[in-house]
Amino acid sequence: MIRIAAVGDLHYDRRSHNRISEHFGGLDTKADILLLAGDLTQTGHPEEMQVLADDLQKCPIPIVAVLGNHDYHVDQVETVTRMLEAVGVIVLEQSSTVLDVAGQKVGIAGAKGFGGGFVGACGSDFGEPEMKVFMRHSKAQARKLENCLKEMKADYKIALLHYSPTAQTLSGEKKEIFPFLGCYFLAEAVDYGQADIVFHGHAHAGVEKGETPGGTPVRNVAQPVIRHAFNIYMLESKSKQSENKKEFLQLES
Ligand SMILES: [Fe+2]
Ligand SMILES: [Fe+2]
Q1: pLDDT per position as a tens digit, 78-124
Q2: Residue among 222, 215, 209, 168 nearest 196 (CA)
Q3: Cα of 155 to ligand 1 centre, how many Å?
Q4: How far, in Å, is the centroid of ligand 1 from the Cα of 48?
Q5: Which of 24, 38, 48, 249 has its CA at a distance of 20 to 30 angstroms from the CA of residue 79?
Q6: How far is the CA of 10 from the centre of ligand 1 (A)?
């Protein structure tokens, strides 16, 4: 059984000392990996990220993270990425990692993702150059994510995103901003890439549970949604499943 602790949208600022680390006690007895689904800081300023990095250094289990749109705001992505890596956090952006958990290979493909909208209410790669750039960025993110998932050799495949692959977990957000909260390209990527589950953040007013059109479970772990330091999910071992499909269950919050 693989146990995943996940949270997004920590939105650390210069005064957030110990906000997550005060929940790290005994975490290694409850979870195997901690996933962070972007918007780790308010603006992506190195001083904000340093507060988080100091906190994450105290975590007893491996941490895998993606950045969110807030972490890009002040154009210090390389610097803040290096700060996380310096304390052992694996930062993914259109890339993947495979961790060994009790002899099982857990693959995580991560990307920030981007907006674009959902079938019937989405942008298209047409018209002004600015619109083409917007949609091509979204499509490129999804294509790379799909390739990462397909290339990973792992017993379990997890997609870690900031933007949502489905409108289902956006329920509660204003419909007018759905195209800025996620894109259906990401759902196609996780379905074709045969991910077992997707974690994302970004939709603070959304809901936790949804799934892609292909039936891949999606969990919006934005902290304002889950209202805990993190949620813990478990992936049952294949041998306990009647079909080839693996199942994630929420263990505790
Ligand atoms: Fe956020
Ligand atoms: Fe965000």
Answers
A1: 999 999 999 999 999 999 999 999 999 999 999 999 999 999 999 99
A2: 215
A3: 30
A4: 15
A5: 24
A6: 7
pTM over 0.90: yes
Ligand nearest to the CA of 162: 2
198 CA from centroid of ligand 2 (Å): 16
Report how far ligand 2's centroid is from the alpha carbon of 189 (Å): 20
Q: What is the DSSP string of the chain?
A: -EEEEEEB---B-TT-TTTTGGG-TTHHHH-SEEEEES--BSS--HHHHHHHHHHHTT-SS-EEEE--GGGGTTS-HHHHHHHHHHTT-EE-SSEEEEEEETTEEEEEEEE-----EETTEE--S-SSHHHHHHHHHHHHHHHHHHHHHHH---SEEEEEESSBS-SGGGBTB-GGGGGGTBBHHHHHHHHHTT-SEEEE---TTS-SEEE-TT--EEEE-BHHHH-SS-EEEEE--GGG-SSS---EEEEE-
How far is residue 46 from each of residues 72, 76, 133, 222, measured CA to CA in Å? 11, 7, 28, 22
- Quote the ligand 1 centre to 103 CA distance (angstroms): 34
Query: Ligand 2 center to residue 68 CA distance, Å?
Result: 5
Domains of the chain: 2-252 (3.60.21.10)
Residues less than 5 Å from ion ligand 2, measured at CB: 39, 68-69, 202
